[in-house]
Design goal:
Length: 406
């Protein structure tokens, strides 16, 4: 366990270093989610930060605190994308060369952006943890300084400057909700916020498929997950850092876990209602609030930690979010094999205000009776309640619809 710590004074010094480097990102309100909570909900938009996430804060502070000789030897990092971009830009601003190890399959826009900021990108392993091993070996071999994504006091202090901004922008805040991977952001924010306002509840949120903090907290020490599976690559970290873990166990009020469906719904809500593009990891805080709105004392600030998302992934996430929200409905049902039967079904769907996106007419199913055909439908609805009403209406009309997956 780490014996180091991060204090309010550390975060304040980091804020001075970041003057003119990191943007003071806005707080945006959300009427729809505020109505769910029964009080004001605002978003801290680090998705609008330089490099598209909060990571520039910690990376710049860490590299700025190196000696001139250390900066001359270069820096190395490992990341799925956001820390990579933060290190690349910070190193460029501080005139230090940077090498970044990324997992195989890292999102292409993040790879391209990292290279555009001046880093040399190398690939190693299939997870951030495997890339970390390669980056540490590179540091040993070359003398480059390893810039850890979350387990270093300077990095944590830099990330903690977000907390100071939130207190200044929303002094009446009662709850702050933050996504968690390795824990640097949550630890730094908690260190700053709790020192100034110990009454503010600070809540961390992890994706269910990469939730390392609950078992680690139960064990009383950081433990390694056996495996991870989540769309939220930005918080897919298999083991908490020692220093973040210590700070989080002492300062954070609660860790919550959200599903992939909740992440998709949150991303869709942010895009549709707030007009904010947020990656899955960045939407975790909002997902937690949407899952259990009445559990959060308002005013609530949910931190949108990043907005770097592959457009192809965004297309899949939007579709997944629409399905999760009941806006897309897939059905199979049987109709008589005679003229007008399909037209009658489509008329019934039209009267129910369902939009047909795709339709397939199947005659060759072995389970079909003589004189029957099966129809597979993909429909657009107004939500779960409308979808349930539609199914009930079809049953009342004599059909036997069976919901299927997309």
């Amino acid at each position: 366990m780490s014996t180091a710590t991060v204090t309010l004074e550390d975060v304040e010094r980091a804020r001075d270093l970041l003057e003119g480097v990191a943007r003071r990102t806005p707080l945006e309100g959300s009427r729809s989610i505020s109505e769910r909570v029964g009080g004001q909900v605002r978003f801290k938009c680090e998705n609008l930060q330089r490099t598209g996430s909060f990571k520039i804060r910690g990376a710049y502070v860490r590299i700025a605190n190196l000696t001139p000789a250390e900066r001359a030897n270069g820096v190395v990092a490992a990341s799925a994308g956001n820390h990579a971009q933060g290190v690349a830009l910070a190193a460029s601003l501080l005139e230090s060369k940077s090498t970044v190890f990324m997992p195989e399959g890292a999102p292409l826009p993040k790879v391209a952006a990292t290279e555009a900021y001046g880093a040399h990108v190398r690939f190693a392993g299939h997870t951030v943890d495997e890339a970390l091993i390669a980056a540490r070996a590179f540091a040993t071999d070359t003398g480059a300084t390893f810039i850890h994504p979350f387990d270093h006091p300077d990095v944590i202090a830099g990330q903690g400057t977000v907390g100071l901004e939130i207190l200044e922008q929303c002094p009446e805040v009662r709850t702050i909700v933050v996504s968690v991977g390795g824990g640097g952001l949550l630890a730094g924010l908690a260190a700053a916020v709790k020192a100034v306002r110990p009454d503010v509840r600070v809540i961390g949120v992890q994706a269910a498929g990469a939730a390392a903090y609950p078992p680690s907290m139960a064990a009383g020490k950081p433990v390694q997950l056996a495996g991870m599976a989540t769309m939220a690559d930005g918080i897919a970290v298999g083991q908490p850092g020692d220093l973040p873990f210590d700070l989080i166990t002492r300062l954070v009020d609660e860790i919550r876990v959200v599903s992939e469906e909740s992440l998709s719904k949150a991303m869709l809500a942010l895009l549709e209602r707030a007009k904010l593009v947020v990656e899955p990891a960045g939407a975790a805080a909002v997902a937690a609030v949407m899952d259990d709105a009445r559990a959060f004392d308002a005013p609530v600030v949910a931190l949108l930690s990043g907005g770097n998302i592959d457009p192809l992934l965004m297309m899949r996430m939007i579709r997944h979010g629409l399905v999760s929200a009941g806006r897309f409905l897939a059905l199979r049902l049987r109709i008589p094999d005679r003229p007008g039967a399909l037209a009658k079904l489509l008329s019934e769907l039209g009267e129910a205000d369902a939009n047909v996106m795709d339709i397939e007419h199947l005659w060759t199913r072995p389970s079909l009776a003589f004189g029957e055909v099966e129809v597979a439908l993909q429909l657009e609805t107004r939500g779960i309640a409308h979808a349930e009403t539609l199914i009930s209406r079809l049953r009342a009309a004599g059909y036997q619809p069976e919901p299927t997956s997309f």
